[in-house]
Amino acid sequence: MDQEVIGEALIVVGDATETVDTLYPYYRLIEAGIRPVVIAPEKRRYQMVLHEVKPGWTITKEWEGYSIEADLAFSEVDESKYLGIFFSGGRAPEYIRYDEDLVRMTQYFFAEGKPIASVCHGVEIPAYADCVRGRRMATVPKCRFDLESCGGIYVDEACVIDDNLVSGRTYHDSGHFVGPWIKMMEASAAETR
Q1: What is the DSSP letter of 2?
Q2: Residue 36 maps to a domain
Q3: What residue ranges of the chain have pLDDT lower than 70?
Q4: How far are the Cα atoms of 137, 143, 170 from residue 183, in angstroms, in the given order?
Q5: 19-31 helix and 174-191 helix, angle to the nearest 10 degrees
Q6: Number of domains in the chain
Q7: The model scores a pTM over 0.90
Q8: Quick one: CA torsion of 60, 61, 66, 71, rounded to 10 degrees?
Q9: Smallest Cα–Cα separation from 102: which of 7, 5, 2, 10?
Q10: Which pLDDT belongs to residue 56?
Q11: What pLDDT is attached to residue 55?
């Protein structure tokens, strides 16, 4: 039996997006009856990566992960059609944050108060879009500078909720922050029925 789809949510990716950061919310959305729509600079297949600080290492090691197909290019997105947006981690945000269409839709979700989730390096996108000023967020410690330099407030917790914004530090926090983000979208979808 097919599950009823209550709406759609955007998942932002690029090459070197973190695999677990991306796939955990992707499949949780499906379970919740929210269709995940993967968006990226172009409509094509993207190579994801696995990131981990190995024991004895002081920096992140990277391996190739699965790949994922983008449903739409950033330029094709009508952001008003979606319940929420998710900024995945990995190295991709560092490169894709400058895309004018991505900046436009990021600013839209913040301005409209729609549910937003971010993990790890995902913070670099709303930070660049000038949307984190005065907002409390979790992120990986090495992105604390990006957040604070753009006026955000760093919080070292597994789930930080600041109004419509939900964030976690790394994929290790997915079980803590993805659920509250989905609940926000479920409530939003119920209001519009």
Answers
A1: P
A2: yes
A3: 1
A4: 18, 26, 20
A5: 40
A6: 1
A7: yes
A8: 30
A9: 10
A10: 86
A11: 86
Q: Quick one: pLDDT at residue 94?
A: 95
Q: Is residue 1 in a domain? A: no
**Residue of 51, 121, 172, 176 marked catalytic:** 121
Which CATH number belongs to the domain containing residue 79 in this structure? 3.40.50.880
- Domain containing 67 equals 7-191
- Nearest in space to 12 (alpha carbons), one of 66, 62, 79: 79
Residue 141 falls inside a structural domain: yes
Q: Residue 81: inside a domain, yes or no? A: yes
Is residue 51 among the annotated active site residues? Answer: no
pLDDT computed for residue 61 by the predictor: 80
Query: Would you list the DSSP string of 111-165?
Result: HHT--EEEEGGGGHHHHHTT--TT-EE---GGGHHHHHHTT-EE--SS-EEETTE
Q: Using CB atoms within 10 Å of the CB of residue 101, give its burial: 0 to 12 exposed, 13 to 18 middle, 19+ buried.
A: middle
Tell me the one-letter amino acid at 29. Answer: L
